UniProtKB/TrEMBL annotation:
Residues 1-20 form the signal peptide. Residues 494-527 are annotated as: Disordered. This is CAP domain-containing protein. Residues 75-102 form a coiled coil.
């Protein structure tokens, strides 16, 4: 099945011959008070029935003229001229009547305008005065709630001072942190522990105290190092518990002694007991990585010897110190360096001051460290509180006091002034709206009054033209008179149908030049809705003349019912009205498919002998194989979004497929599928309008190009000279091709 292809601007026939008729009386205009879009379904149906009857009557007269052997062309030309002239008279009469009606209300419109304009000066003055009072009240209120500059300045100075104190507290916390264990002892008032670091004892030719660098990372007084040593004391107490001994407690003094001595031992890398204080001491040297190895040396190894009967203190003294029931307090220190890890266990003989459990001592140390960390980051709590208080005072000083008596009075006055301004402005706006409407009514009435005379003259001219057209038709005899009246009835009925029909949704302009998109262009103007159908390319007389659809409809051509004959369909928005015969009247099939902005294509895509529709979005095609709405039966991609698309049976297999055009190059696909083209060739010029059809009846669709009203036909899908050159119709005609009589060859039809 071949799909009929519409193409661009086309050509039609020359006027028909005619014969003389008696003069006829012009038919009066059919008045209608129904505005477009406000009609009922019954009224629209009645108008459509009248149109169908008028076309049928007109076509019957045409058939009668043809049967009589009279010259149809002249009679039809005269009749159509009369119909056009009569339509002009009716339009001129309606315009004249409307202008007279508007002009009759001129005095009333003038008074309405004068009344509306007269109140505007006073209302404008009232609104301006009210606005001035509101602005003054606003200024008074702003002044009343404005902050005191002196108070704000003083508050800012307090904030600056408090912020400086906060930074000082952060710096002080850092200084305290850097003192390490000495800072901790100071915070606890542990004077005996502090005195340890002032001893006059010398070691290796230097003051013993000089080996301590308070808080340094490699010093036993470093707070993190100090915290680490407490875990070893806990493990020692676990060992003592196995001997049913009381756990050792911790004192600041013994911690300080251990720290002082281990610093000296670490920095001199000498594993010797300094004995600067009367305490017991355990040492471990070399690169011992952790507590477990120290305990292995001090306890586990020496316990094994002791269990074997060894009593020499030099060999089992570390073990004996750990399990000595007379020791109740201890201290521990660790000073890491690359030569030694040293531990000091120093049970106290005589000092029982401030002993604490390991857990309590560790908690006190951790609290001290956390407090310093917090102060280093955020400042002391005292400084933070002072800054918050100063900031709140500054905020209050910069906001002013909206609760003061002066501010409350100013606020009340502002609210009153604002309300009065709103009322005055609303009155002015209402008056302005009335004035705008009155001005429009007055200008419309004035324009109508001025137009009445001109429209009367135009009506007279139109009536004269109609009379002359009636006379010309009457000169051609009875057929001319009857056909003129029939054409006028058709035109009048069509106008009523158009007026009563709801307007379709606005439709975007599709790709210029795309076949199947009969959108008016400069070369393809929207004409009327009258179709002239021919069954050959040479006849000067149409085989069928009828009206279908509306002048603005998109026209489509195809064999919708599979009878071998092409007929028309029209599209409005996304709704399609299909006609299965080459004549006017109601549609045989109506349905919606796709979107209003889609490009629509026609073809027999499944080879069942019936043409259906496809819509295109970009380079995606949605193919439908039956005349109904709903989902597409196939979705394929072919070509580019900017291509011009054609449909036809390019290989004679009975199925229509797609071709795309770029300039004067054609890319033909012989299957409904994507991929490379099966045939590529050039023909014509890039500016030509393309027509697609089976021009020689061989079952294969080929191309023709149109320039003006000349058509260059090619009977094969190839480049080269045209096989036929045809001249047909007028350049302004909208041209379609189709197999109207079912003989297998496409011939022209035009719409005017």
């Amino acid at each position: 099945m071949r799909t009929s292809a519409l193409l661009m601007t086309g050509a039609l026939l020359v006027p028909f011959a005619a014969q003389a008729l008696p003069v006829l009386s012009p038919a009066p205009a059919a008045a209608s008070d129904i505005a477009p879009g406000n009609s009922s379904a019954a009224q629209l149906a009645e108008a459509r029935a009248r149109l169908t009857a008028a076309i049928k009557a007109r076509d019957a007269i045409l058939a009668e003229i043809k049967a009589s052997g009279a010259s149809l062309a002249d009679i039809q030309s005269a009749a159509q001229a009369y119909a056009r002239a009569n339509a002009q008279v009716e339009a001129a009469q309606q315009a004249y009547d409307a202008a007279v009606a508007k002009a009759s209300g001129f005095d009333s419109a003038k008074k309405g305008y004068d009344d509306a304009a007269s109140v505007m000066p006073q209302l404008t003055k009232n609104a301006e005065s009210a606005r001035a009072r509101r602005d003054a009240a606003q200024a008074s209120y702003d002044k009343a709630i404005a902050p005191n500059p002196e108070a704000a300045k003083a508050a800012q100075e307090k904030v600056d001072a408090a912020r400086a104190k906060l930074e000082e507290s952060k710096a002080a916390a850092k200084v305290q942190w850097d003192r390490g264990a000495l800072g901790f002892y100071e915070a606890r008032n542990a004077q005996k522990a502090l005195d340890v670091f002032t001893t006059n004892t010398e070691y290796q030719g230097k003051p013993l105290a000089s080996y301590t660098h308070p808080g340094a990372a490699d010093d036993a007084t470093n707070l993190d190092s100090m915290a680490k040593t407490l875990s070893l004391i806990t493990k020692i107490n676990e060992l003592r518990a196995a001997h049913q001994l009381e756990p050792l407690k911790v004192t600041d003094y013994l911690m300080a002694v251990a720290q002082l001595q281990v610093n000296a031992q670490s920095r001199t890398n000498k594993m010797t007991h300094i004995k600067a204080f009367n305490v017991a001491e355990n040492l471990a040297s070399a690169n011992y990585p952790g507590d477990e190895l120290s305990l292995k040396l001090w306890y586990h190894n020496e316990k094994a010897l002791h269990d074997q009967g060894v009593t020499d203190f030099a060999k089992v003294g570390h073990y004996l110190n750990i399990v000595n029931p007379n020791y109740s307090v201890t201290g521990m220190a660790f000073a890491p360096n690359i030569q030694a890890n040293t531990f000091d266990h120093t049970p106290l003989y005589g000092d029982n001051s401030q002993p604490q459990t390991v857990a309590d001592y560790s908690a006190a140390l951790q609290s001290y460290m956390n407090g310093l960390k917090d102060e280093m980051a955020q400042g002391s709590s005292v400084a933070r509180t002072a800054l918050a208080d100063a900031t709140a005072e500054l905020e209050a000083a910069t906001k002013g006091d909206p609760e003061s008596l002066e501010a409350q009075i100013a606020k009340t006055q502002l609210e009153t002034a604002a309300r009065e301004y709103d009322e005055a402005k609303a009155a002015l706006d209402t008056a302005q709206t009335k004035l705008t409407a009155a001005t429009a009514a007055y200008e419309s009435a004035k324009a109508a009054k001025q137009a009445v005379q001109k429209l009367a003259e135009q009506l007279t001219v139109a009536q004269g033209e109609r009379d002359r057209a009636a006379a010309r038709a009457a000169q051609l005899g009875e057929f001319g008179e009857r056909l003129a009246a029939a054409e006028a009835d058709v035109a009048r009925a069509q106008a009523d149908v158009d007026r009563l029909s709801p307007a379709p949704a606005p439709k975007p302009t599709p790709t210029p030049g795309a076949p199947g998109t009969n959108v008016p262009t400069p070369n393809n103007p929207a004409t009327g809705n009258i179709f002239y159908v021919s069954n050959d390319w040479t006849s000067r007389e149409a085989a069928s003349v009828f009206s279908y659809g509306r002048a603005g409809d998109e026209v489509l051509v195809g064999d919708w019912d599979g009878d071998g004959k092409d007929t028309f369909a029209v599209r409005r928005g996304n709704k399609i009205y299909v006609k299965n015969s080459v004549d006017g009247g109601a549609a045989d099939v109506e349905f919606a498919y796709g979107r209003a902005g889609d490009e629509i294509l026609v073809g027999d895509f499944d080879g069942d002998g019936k043409d259906t529709f496809a819509v295109r979005r970009g380079n995606t095609f949605y193919v439908l194989n039956s005349l109904h709405g709903g989902e597409a039966d196939r979705v394929v991609h072919y070509g580019r979004a900017g291509d011009t698309v054609l449909t036809g049976d390019f290989d004679g297999d009975g199925k229509d497929t797609f071709a795309v055009r770029r300039g004067n190059l054609y890319y033909v696909k012989n299957a409904i599928a994507g991929g490379a083209a099966d045939t590529v060739f050039s023909y014509g010029r890039a500016s030509d309008a393309t027509i697609l059809g089976d021009f020689n009846g061989d079952g294969v669709d080929t191309l023709a190009v149109r320039r003006g009203n000349t058509v260059y036909v090619k009977n094969s899908l190839a480049a080269g000279e045209a096989d036929q050159v045809l001249t047909y119709g007028r350049t302004s005609d909208q041209l379609f091709v189709g197999d109207w009589d079912g003989n297998g060859t496409d011939t022209p039809a035009v719409r005017r």
